[in-house]
Amino acid sequence: LRETTAAESAPTPAQFRQAMLRHLQYTVGKSPQQASLFDWRMALSHTVRDYAVDPWFSATRRTWDEDRKRVYYLSMEFLIGRLLEDQAINLGLRDVMVQVLAEFGLSFDEVAEGEPDAALGNGGLGRLAACYLESMATMGCPAYGYGLRYEHGLFRQHFENGRQIETPENWLATDNPWDFTRPEAAYPVGFGGELHDHDGASIWSPRSKVLASAHDTPVVGYGGQWANTLRLWAAMPSADLFNLDRFNAGDFAAASEPEALARSLSRVLYPNDTTEGGKELRLSQEYFLTSASVQDILRRYLAAHDDLLKLPEFVAIQMNDTHPAIAGPELIRLLVDEHAVDFDTAVETATSVLGYTNHTLLPEALERWSVGLMRKVLPRHLQIIETLDTQFIALQGQAPNPVRLISNDQVSMGDLAFTTSHKVNGVSALHTELVSQELFPVHNELHPGRIVNITNGVTPRRWLKLANPSLAALITDTIGAGWESDLERLRELEPYAEDPAFRDAFGRSKRQAKEHFTGWLAAEHGIELPAEALYDAQVKRLHEYKRQLLNILWTIAHWQRIKRDPQANWVPRVKIFGGKAAPSYHMAKLIIQLINDVAEVVNNDPETRHLLRVVYPPNYGVSMAEKLIPAADLSEQISTAGMEASGTGNMKFALNGALTIGTLDGANVEIREHVGAENFFLFGLTTEQVGERRAQQGHSRAALEASQTLRDVLQAIAEGTFSPEDHHRYDGLLETMWNSDWFLVASDFEDYDRAQGEVADCYSDPEKWQRMAILNIARMGYFSSDRSIREYMSQIWDVESAL
Ligand code: 26M
């Protein structure tokens, strides 16, 4: 086995070319003359993948040989995007690959554009898991990602008359070249059935069993010195799991239940980024992921050890939100029922192994499962949770109203995850404070020190080097290579903020990124944009708390002002929106329609179209973000304070030299501290003021009465200015604005307007703007996911780097 790093063993163009031609002929079965773009991409992907295998083998081998502790990251979502360029960069193959393709007359961008995004996630939580996988590999942290191999990822979005339409996503329709199928790694997962008492012990006889079958993708770290595995489970009906007893008893429908369940389990990703609750299939998916993963973890541990009580010395399991929180009961069940460990020892062992990351405080997003459904699907686990609940009540002594794992006939997965974890973490400083004080105050007093903060981060390989090659090249030219895996080195750029030549070069790189984005937008969506304008972007899932509504209402106000005084010295702006709404989230879908209706009117107004555009390219996802974020001048991070756990898009924008207009929410607080308050456009109520304002009767009406600007905006909407064919389209939305406004759009409007005025003033002084943008880039090193992972390794997982 080779132990050399990718950089040392980089192939020559001739070697790479030969390897690719071999794959074209023998893997794809085509000659260069017959090959389509698809064929070339397959040959290229297999060629790149080959170079991942050596570091992958050697990392796996060393982990076994050195008997290292491993991290297992359990997540229902991995929002990976494309892999070809990412893997090529990390293996040091990007340049040679581009060169060899060019020799065949092919443009790399054109070949790469054919790769479908692996969109196995909804948004921030899923993308964070993908950044963390890449950083764990870069940091030499022995780790596995465990997830589900959904046949259909997040739905595709398009607009009809401005309304969101969802269609199925189908990333596996063509070959997935990254996937190694592992039919030998398969585990039965049981569902339903009964409990029987046997000598005081509970025996679970599931009604159906489904096989979990593994598909592995190597995840190579930057520099190619380490690689981990992303293991995705596919549900498989299995001949021997077909229920023969029931079949022979004549109950044919019941006999094929396992097969029906199997066909649905890994079929599709649930498209909500908040729980809608109660769906049996979702609970079954969560258990399927968790059980298969925990079985695999124990199998791997027992292949090298025999004392299960030492599990915490060799295994750390991280639960990405509560979605895999059944891991506690499942691990306890396997230890007690299959390995004869006594209950209390099993609980202690499981708790020492497990960690839980909380990603949200929204009450509707905190998972609760009805006791009835739990009993039906997972009777043994419910029994274990009941025992844990009894123990947890006892721990609270004489408390009159103890916190319970089960209340109102529902299992609270957050409380369960807390009690079965040795560490619980929030994802930004503010969020962790709220997790301690608002969400888990009782747990926190019982277990001081269990809650820790790990502020989120993003991988600079994908979000700077890959997405923004012109800025990345400028950085390397200025401070040398190596910043990619030591992002604090960006600080060396600080003095260049005062260097006019560097500022010009930065301006040119921003211009190139804009051209790349607008070129794509024109080719893909037929939308032409002016290059000389302030690109102002808000891209993220549609949610009322994220306040896309505040942004579009301000856009209308801005349009009205331009129309009142068209000759004034306006800064031309392009308002860019992107993001999907959950299919059943009516208000979010109405906001999408409003944005598209406003775009229709504003973009066709000859008086203003040279000064204001509104664009909403459909189907925002990782690959669109890679083009859009580098092109942005202004990043909208405008959630109601206290509601966005962290945000990670905010980090990607600032790292690419966009300035932020934002509230004191989530990681915005820390971003502002790092880049400097003078380089950040702050507005809005604080978390504390949000609480106070909501308690004031009639706050929405009061705020509207204080803002002529906002009243004029609502008036225009009410008159049908943007929906001439349906004056009542936005009645519901307007009613909310006047009478409830939970998200405080009206309360924050005037201050947002003031901050947007500062943005425009600042942008008209390019020297000042560029200085601020450069200082943002230089001071964003802290937000590398490498730093986050280092903190998880030392504060939660107690695992050492193998490098
Ligand atoms: C739950 C049950 C059923 C179906 C879907 C879900 C579900 C899926 C995703 C619930 C929440 C989901 O994601 C929440 C999320 O993305 N949270 C975001 O996490 C980011 C990473 O920590 C933070 O930066 C964001 O602030 C936070 O909103």
UniProtKB/TrEMBL annotation:
Keywords: Carbohydrate metabolism, Glycosyltransferase, Pyridoxal phosphate, Transferase. The keyword Glycosyltransferase applies. Its cofactor is pyridoxal 5'-phosphate. It comes from the Bacteria. Residues 3-12 have a biased composition (Low complexity). Its EC number is 2.4.1.1. CDD domains: GT35_Glycogen_Phosphorylase. One of its GO terms (molecular function) is 1,4-alpha-oligoglucan phosphorylase activity. It catalyses: [(1->4)-alpha-D-glucosyl](n) + phosphate = [(1->4)-alpha-D-glucosyl](n-1) + alpha-D-glucose 1-phosphate. PANTHER family: GLYCOGEN PHOSPHORYLASE, GLYCOGEN PHOSPHORYLASE, LIVER FORM. Belongs to the glycogen phosphorylase family. NCBIfam families: P_ylase (TIGR02093). Allosteric enzyme that catalyzes the rate-limiting step in glycogen catabolism, the phosphorolytic cleavage of glycogen to produce glucose-1-phosphate, and plays a central role in maintaining cellular and organismal glucose homeostasis. This is Alpha-1,4 glucan phosphorylase.
